[in-house]
Write a structure and sequence with these properties.
The chain is mostly helical. It has helices at 13-49, 61-89, 91-100, 103-112, 120-130, 136-147, 153-178, 207-210, 213-226, 237-244, 247-277, 289-331, 341-363, 365-381, 385-408, 410-425, 429-451; strands at 3-4, 192-196, 199-203, 228-229. This is MFS transporter.
């Protein structure tokens, strides 16, 4: 089982260089592998849903948008539990146990997609099971933040989240390939007939889920054998409520919702949006690119937060997302033109890149802001350095948990906004206008609170 650590002082340079750094890096990589698999599971459903009508499932376009919005919604709700349970169970032990839970959605999706007569409620149920993978960030990133000193938190969490988030693009790259072949033989089920237009061929849609089963077992065992449990923090709902009373929790929550919600929501909605706007173009070869760009740019955002300031990097990222939103809208077909798919694709890559930078820069604000706040309080109250670090770290972890939970709702809001705009107005313009205004609001908050020269928490 996991190794329990009784003493952990990452701000002590001698301890960090002699013992702490090696342990921290091992746990970081285990967390990365586990989080990556959680994102594989969380977002595989969007790749399954886009193929359901082609294999015979009778679902409407609005139902498809609803189905892809359910995993982010359930993932956000799961974070309410994941955000505190790891601090009681132990971070390393929870890495292993939460990875084993991924066997449920992988098995459930693989079974349901083989029966085209499955009722819609069963599709909603397995969509909800995929949301289990969405809870992991709330525990993984908070746990990782305690392993590293303040000067390295941004990069560490950026690597953890960025390479973990890369699971979205890996799923979108692998699933279209693996469903073309009988990877598991007859024991995994019969193929389905996939047909769209004049193209007809066999697919094994269940492979989209079954390929993750052996990986879940292997990664869970690695975490259970080699991860470490730090001294238990035992974060409680009261700690969460205390963090929610601080205005900075909500400022950071808003900023993280803007970038992380964009990543989740557009990753889920892009396949359906591309098919709806450019039905004559096969966008499947490009689906993985945006989430990959976002995941790889997140460590850059964390590094920028450590070097030039999280507030400045967050302002820049939201400006780019606002510009990209305008560019996407200009690329869409209209009564006067057929639109430009390549401009559409390029602008989405810009949004994904900026969202990745914003993910890294805004999320690392939480531990830094509350450590600064605790340090100022300690100067007035005569508190010891160890007590200050523990209290600031605890408040920062609680703020990260709140931000992680709320931001995940963006993955539900964006696909739902597109579906509702199409249903109510027959156009995606209202949804894009809402996103544009929200990014501008995030720019103002980041500038006023964390980047202008007179900001109380400039960091």
């Amino acid at each position: 089982m996991t190794v329990s650590i009784k003493r952990w002082e990452p701000e002590n340079v001698i301890f960090w260089l002699s013992r702490g750094r090696g342990i921290a890096r091992r746990n970081l990589w285990l967390s990365i592998f586990s989080l990556h698999l959680n994102f594989n599971i969380w977002m595989m459903w969007s790749m399954v849903v886009v193929n359901l009508p082609a294999v015979g499932f009778l679902i409407s376009g609005q139902q498809q948008f609803l189905l892809v919005s359910i995993p982010p919604l359930v993932g956000a709700l799961m974070r309410l539990i994941y955000s505190w349970i790891w601090s009681w169970v132990g971070g390393g032990l929870w890495l292993g146990l939460s990875t084993l839970l991924l066997l449920l959605p992988a098995w459930g999706v693989g079974r349901v997609v083989q029966d085209i007569s499955s009722p819609f409620w069963q599709l909603l149920l397995v969509a909800g099971l995929c949301g289990i993978g969405g809870g992991a960030s709330a525990s993984h990133l908070s746990n990782t933040s305690f392993f590293f000193p303040k000067s390295e938190k941004g990069l560490a969490m950026g690597l953890n989240a960025g390479l973990g988030n890369l699971g979205v693009s890996v799923a979108q790259l692998l699933i279209p390939l693996c469903i073309l072949y009988p990877l598991f033989g007859a024991r995994a089920g019969e193929p389905q007939v996939w047909g769209r237009g004049g193209e007809v061929h066999f697919v094994w849609l269940q492979n989209a889920a079954y390929i993750w089963l052996p990986l879940a077992v292997l990664i869970a065992l690695a975490c259970l054998l080699y991860a470490h449990d730090l001294p238990k923090l035992r974060i409680t709902p009261r700690d969460q409520l205390d963090a929610m009373r601080d205005a900075h929790t909500w400022y950071i929550c808003l900023l993280y919702m803007g970038s992380y919600g964009t990543f989740l929501g557009f990753s889920a909605a892009f396949p359906l949006l591309a098919r709806a706007m450019f039905p004559q173009v096969d966008a499947s070869p490009y689906l993985f690119v945006g989430p990959m760009v976002c995941a790889l740019s997140r460590p850059l955002g964390g590094w920028m937060g450590d070097r030039i300031g999280g507030g400045i990097a967050t302002v820049a990222s939201n400006l780019l997302m606002a510009l990209g939103t305008v560019g996407v809208y200009l690329s869409l077909p209209s009564a006067a033109s057929g639109g430009s798919f390549w401009l559409f694709l390029a602008m989405f890559q810009l949004i994904f890149f900026a969202a990745g930078v914003g993910n890294g820069s805004s999320y690392q604000l939480a531990p830094k802001v509350f450590l600064i706040q605790a340090g100022r309080d300690a100067q007035r109250g005569g508190e010891s350095l160890a007590q200050t670090y523990a209290r600031g770290g605890r408040r920062g972890a609680s703020a990260m948990n709140v931000s992680s939970v709320m931001a995940a709702f963006g993955g539900f809001v964006i696909p739902k906004a597109f579906g509702s705009a199409l249903s109510w107005f027959g156009s995606f313009l209202p949804a894009f206008a809402m996103f544009f205004l929200f990014y501008l609001l995030c720019c103002v908050v980041a500038w006023c609170q964390y980047s202008r020269s007179g900001a109380a928490m400039r960091c």
